[in-house]
Amino acid sequence: MESNAKGIEVLAQISPVAWQHILLNGHYTFQSSNEIIDLDALVAGLRLR
């Protein structure tokens, strides 16, 4: 996890406002799932500058 410290820092600072594919005044339906999100895999997939 320490090797991804920069990626974790970047991920923590991402604002939902920056998500261009999200319609902020749209109608969304979310269903609960028992699936666990693998944050380590998400961070590992980040391309950092």
From TrEMBL:
Origin: domain of life: Bacteria
Protein name: Transposase and inactivated derivatives, TnpA family
Origin species: Yokenella regensburgei
